[in-house]
Amino acid sequence: MVHDLVRRTARGGWWRVGAASTLGAALLGSVLVPQDGPQDAADVAAAPTTVAQRAVARETSPAVQRAAGSTTAYVGGVEVVRDVGTAAADVLRGTVFDDVDRDSRQARDEEGVAGVTVSNGLDVVVTDADGRYELPVRDGMTAFVTKPAGWDVPVDADGLPQFHYHHLPAGSPPLRYGGLEPTGPVPTAVNFPIARSEAEPAADEAFRCAVLGDVQTYSGAEVGHARDGAVRDLVERDDVGACGVLMLGDVAGDDLGLYPRIKQTMGVLDVPVRSVPGNHDIDFDATDPDHAFDTYKREMGPEYWSTDIGRVHVVGLNNVRYPCTPEEDDADGTRPHCADPENRPTYNGVIGEEQLAWLEADLAQVPEDHLVVVATHIPLVSVADATSTQHQTDDVLDLYALLEGRPAMALSGHTHSLEVLEPGDSFAGWRRAVGVRELPFPHYVAGAVSGDWYSGDLDADGLPMALQRDGVVPGYLALDLEGTEHQHTFLGVGRDEADQMSVSVSSPTWRRWFRTLDDWRRSAEAGGRTPPPVNANDLGDRRLVDRDDLQGDSWVVTNLWAGCHELARHGAGRRPRAGRGRADAAGAGREGPRRRRLGRPVGRDAAAAGGAPRLREHLGRRGRPGVPALPRHAVRARAGAAGPQRRRPDVPPVAGAPAGRPAGGPAPRHGAGDRPLRARAHRDGRARGGRGAPGAGLPHRGLRGRRRGLTRA
C-alpha cells in the first residue's frame, strides 16, 4: 500500500513527504520540503479552559499526535498549573496520577499513584497514598519523575519522554542558541501523568534497547547520513519498542540549531528516545556550568534522570563539566586543561557532588537485586584514553562506592571506538589518571553512529565509510536484557547482525606506506605545510601480496569488532605482567588475568608450513614509535620463502573454533552463561586518499579543528 504522507512538525510547520510503502521508508528515503497551506479544523485542539490545560493543549492536539508517527503513541506533556496567588515560593507540589484517558490532564476520576519517585535533582521523595509529593524549590532546578516499571510517561511529537519541569524564573542568560525561556514564579502544581504500559514486558521477560553513541551531526547532510544509516536500520529492525533508544551524548555536533531536525529524524522510530548530554551539546558561550546545557535541556530534556524497565534501573548522568576551573577540577595540578577557563575554556570528565548526592538518594528507592545501568557520555574509564585526565571520569570511585554490592553496567560513548570491558580488567593508566585498579562490573563503550565523523569514501548507499579509531565500522549496540541478565551485540550500520569482524593484510609495502604518511602527519602537526606524499591509491591492490612482501613478513589481521571471548578463554594461560603487552607509549599497561574484549591487539601466531599454533601477545601497539597499530585481535601467518608469487592469504584456523569459520567468540551473557555469537569475515572498502588505509593508525584533524580519532581498518 502506498501512502502520500503529510507530517506536521512540533514547531507548527508542515512537511510533505513523497509516496512510499511505509512510514519509515517515506520519512527516510524522501526529501522533506516545507509546505505552506491552511490548517483544517481537525488539526486545531479545542481551546483550553484553564491555565493548566493550556500547558498541555499543544502537545495533545490531534495534529501533533499524528506527527508522532503513530495514532497509538502516548503523546502529551507534564501538567503545569498556575493559579494566581496560591503557590508557595519555596515548595513545589503536585501529583503523579494515572492518566487513564491519556490526555495529560488529571480528571476527577483519575487517581494518584502511590510510591513513585520524584526529585528536584537533589532531593528525592516518594508519592503518598494519593500520589502527592512536595519538594524544596531551587532556582535552576529540574523536577522530574522516575518512570515506574510497567508504566509509560507521555512523549512529545518526536518521541522524547515528557517527565520533567525546568524551573528557571528569569530564563537563561543571553546564549546563541537561546537556552531556556523564563518560567516565572513557582507553579501552583506540577502534575506528572503516567499510564499503564501497553508495550513494556513483565519483570522477567526479555527486551532489547538500542544504544547509540555520538550521532554528532555538524550539518544537515550529516543528519541525512544518520537518518539513512542507523535510523533506517532501526526502522527496519523494529525490535526496540519496549525499551526504545538511548543516545549517549553528542546528540548534535556543536550546532545546537540542528536539534529540531535531529529530533524529527529520531521521531520516525515511534519509540521513546532518551539521551544524556555530551561535550558537543554544550552552549559554548555559557560562562557558568549552571547554564552550559540550557539549550540541550530545552530541546532534549534533563541533564540527568532515571527510569525503570522491568527489573532494570537506568540512570542517565551528565559527566561533562563546562567550563572546568582550576578551583573545582585542578586543585592537585593534574588537569592543566582546566587552568584558564576565561581565555581557554574547555570541559572535564566529572559527575559532581550534586549528581552523586541525587544518585545516592535515588538508589535508596531501588531494590538491591535490580540491575543498575549507568549511562554517561564520557567513559568512566576507557582503553582508548586510558591515561587521560580529561576523557575519563574523575569521581568514578565515588560512583563505584554507591553501586557496591549491586548488579551494574556502564554505557558510554565519546571515544569513537568500541570497547567491551569486563569485571577485573585493569590498565595502569586508569590507576594514575582516576584511581581505578580494576573494574567492578562491565563497562561498554558503544562506538559511534557517526564513526569517524562521517568521513571517508561513500558506499553504494551514499553513506561515508567513516571507520572508527579502532577500525570498527559505524554502528551501535543492541542491549538484550532479561530480568537482570544482559547481553550486547554490536550492529554495524547497514550490515547483517552476523557481521562482526573485518580482515586485512599487514605487509612491508603497507607498513612503509603508513610510516611515510605518519611521518608527514607528525611534520604537519609541527607546522609543516607540504601536501601528503602518498595516498591510498599508492598502495595498489591490497588484496594481493607479492613474493617480496611474503618473504618480508606479512600477516593477516582480523579485527573482531566487539572482541573475542574465546581468545580469553582458550588463551596462552599466562598472566601478563603489569605495564606490559597491550600498552601505549604513555604506559597504559594491561594488568589482571583477563585478555578479553579490549581495543588492543591479542596476537595468535601460526606457522604457515604447519606445526602447532602458538599464542603470544602481539608486539604492535598504538603509540609505539614507527609501528602502525594493528586492529584489535591479530592472526599472524608467517610465510616461507617458497610459495606463489601472488596469493590471497587465508586466515589460519583458530584452536577451539568451529571448522569452516573464524572464531568470532560469544558475547558474554552476564548471569546466564554464554550464548554463541556468529561471526563472518568481510572486507571493508577503501579509505579516502590521504586519510589512511586498512590498518593505519593515523590521527588527524578535520577542517573544523575538532579532535579526530584513529582511522584504520
UniProtKB/TrEMBL annotation:
<dbReference type="InterPro" id="IPR032288">
    <property type="entry name" value="Metallophos_C"/>
</dbReference>
<feature type="compositionally biased region" description="Low complexity">
    <location>
        <begin position="653"/>
        <end position="670"/>
    </location>
</feature>
<dbReference type="InterPro" id="IPR032285">
    <property type="entry name" value="Metallophos_N"/>
</dbReference>
<feature type="domain" description="Calcineurin-like phosphoesterase N-terminal">
    <location>
        <begin position="109"/>
        <end position="167"/>
    </location>
</feature>
<dbReference type="GO" id="GO:0016787">
    <property type="term" value="F:hydrolase activity"/>
</dbReference>
<feature type="compositionally biased region" description="Basic and acidic residues">
    <location>
        <begin position="671"/>
        <end position="687"/>
    </location>
</feature>
<feature type="domain" description="Calcineurin-like phosphoesterase C-terminal">
    <location>
        <begin position="444"/>
        <end position="565"/>
    </location>
</feature>
<dbReference type="Pfam" id="PF16371">
    <property type="entry name" value="MetallophosN"/>
</dbReference>
<protein>
    <submittedName>
        <fullName>Calcineurin-like phosphoesterase family protein</fullName>
    </submittedName>
</protein>
<feature type="region of interest" description="Disordered">
    <location>
        <begin position="570"/>
        <end position="713"/>
    </location>
</feature>
<dbReference type="Pfam" id="PF00149">
    <property type="entry name" value="Metallophos"/>
</dbReference>
<dbReference type="GO" id="GO:0005975">
    <property type="term" value="P:carbohydrate metabolic process"/>
</dbReference>
<feature type="compositionally biased region" description="Low complexity">
    <location>
        <begin position="600"/>
        <end position="613"/>
    </location>
</feature>
<feature type="domain" description="Calcineurin-like phosphoesterase">
    <location>
        <begin position="208"/>
        <end position="417"/>
    </location>
</feature>
<dbReference type="InterPro" id="IPR013783">
    <property type="entry name" value="Ig-like_fold"/>
</dbReference>
<dbReference type="InterPro" id="IPR051918">
    <property type="entry name" value="STPP_CPPED1"/>
</dbReference>
<dbReference type="InterPro" id="IPR029052">
    <property type="entry name" value="Metallo-depent_PP-like"/>
</dbReference>
<dbReference type="Pfam" id="PF16370">
    <property type="entry name" value="MetallophosC"/>
</dbReference>
<dbReference type="InterPro" id="IPR004843">
    <property type="entry name" value="Calcineurin-like_PHP"/>
</dbReference>
<feature type="compositionally biased region" description="Basic residues">
    <location>
        <begin position="701"/>
        <end position="713"/>
    </location>
</feature>
<feature type="compositionally biased region" description="Basic residues">
    <location>
        <begin position="571"/>
        <end position="580"/>
    </location>
</feature>
